[in-house]
Specification:
Elements (H helix, E strand, L loop, with lengths): L1 E10 L3 H8 L12 E7 L8 E8 L1 E13 L3 E7 L4 E11 L3 E11 L3 H32 L5
Length: 150
């Protein structure tokens, strides 16, 4: 069974600035709740580059990913290859009038743990979505504040 998630946030910054922030892998620790991302191999800016993320607050797990599509400054896709998180993720940036952008975060994940995951997802989903929403709002503030250095 797969779980689909698609959320977005409006950012008061142009597409190229938003895309650069989205793909600042170590910078994700500044806005993504409980996540630290590192480059494992490649340049992090091309298909085949491998990323690894530690996700969790206290207890957590490693989320390994491979970039499967690199289309700057509009889209990057990853394939989650870890033991816990498997499936695809897409980060899209859409230009809006007035130099603003819409950042769209979507995931199509294979639920882990078989039956437990299938029945647990309806309980976990609202918490997961709340965390992603919080992270997207933090992302917009981070980009708009200019505190990003990358």
């Amino acid at each position: 069974m797969t779980a689909e998630v698609r959320l977005d946030v409006i950012v008061d910054a142009p597409v190229d600035v938003v895309f650069a922030a989205v793909t600042d892998w170590p910078g994700q620790a500044e806005w993504m709740l409980g996540t630290r991302v590192e480059l494992r191999s490649g340049d992090g800016r091309s298909v085949g580059s491998e990323l690894v993320a530690w996700t969790g607050l206290g207890v957590g797990f490693w989320d390994t990913m491979v970039i499967t599509r690199w289309d700057p400054p509009y889209r990057v896709d990853v394939l989650h290859t870890g033991a816990v998180v498997r499936g695809t993720g897409t980060m899209e940036v859409v230009a809006l009038p007035g130099g603003r952008s819409r950042f769209v975060w979507s995931e199509e994940l294979d639920l882990p743990l078989g039956v437990v995951g299938r029945f647990g997802w309806p309980v976990a989903r609202p918490l997961f979505l709340a965390g992603v929403r919080r992270s997207l709002r933090a992302f917009a503030r981070w980009v708009e504040s200019g505190s990003r250095t990358g």
